[in-house]
């Protein structure tokens, strides 16, 4: 099973032929700019489409601290996204509470474990909206 850096490498090399389908769901590659290093950081993330936007969840498996990629996009909201062979720039933002109420069920339908991740932590796990820059 692909995971971490190997997942990113195989996904990028094969335009998602390897790594887009993962454990019964779909994955994109999100590249953020390191908030301290300024270097690009790529992460495979489960996603869903919502209109023209893409949704991802900053769960880190229900850890009390948010994932590094989420901290990076808070500092630098312009990100690079790859879905299969399509690569584009997007603007990332955290869904507002009322919006999250609509979006969370979309994400738990694709990865039910998100609900158990939320139960493991007092941190409000964010849904991140990725809007392509046209």
UniProtKB/TrEMBL annotation:
Catalytic activity field? oxidized coenzyme F420-(gamma-L-Glu)(n) + a quinol + H(+) = reduced coenzyme F420-(gamma-L-Glu)(n) + a quinone
Pfam families xref list: F420H2_quin_red
Which residue windows are transmembrane per the record?
Answer: none
Identify the domain of life: Bacteria
What the record says about family reads:
Belongs to the F420H(2)-dependent quinone reductase family.
Question: Mind telling me what this protein is named?
Answer: Nitroreductase family deazaflavin-dependent oxidoreductase
Organism (species): Streptacidiphilus monticola
């Amino acid at each position: 099973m692909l995971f971490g850096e190997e997942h990113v490498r195989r996904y990028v090399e094969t335009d998602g032929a390897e790594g887009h389908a993962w454990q019964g769901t779909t994955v994109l590659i999100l590249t953020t700019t390191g908030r301290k290093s300024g270097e690009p950081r790529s992460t495979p993330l489960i996603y869903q489409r919502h209109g023209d936007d893409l949704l991802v969840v900053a769960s880190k498996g229900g850890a009390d601290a948010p994932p590094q990629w989420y901290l990076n996009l808070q500092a630098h909201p312009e990100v690079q996204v790859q879905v299969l062979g399509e690569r584009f720039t997007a603007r990332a933002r955290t869904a507002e509470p009322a919006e999250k109420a609509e979006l969370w069920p979309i994400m738990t339908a694709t990865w039910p474990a998100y609900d158990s991740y939320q139960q493991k932590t007092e941190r409000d796990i964010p849904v991140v909206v990725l809007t392509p820059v046209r």
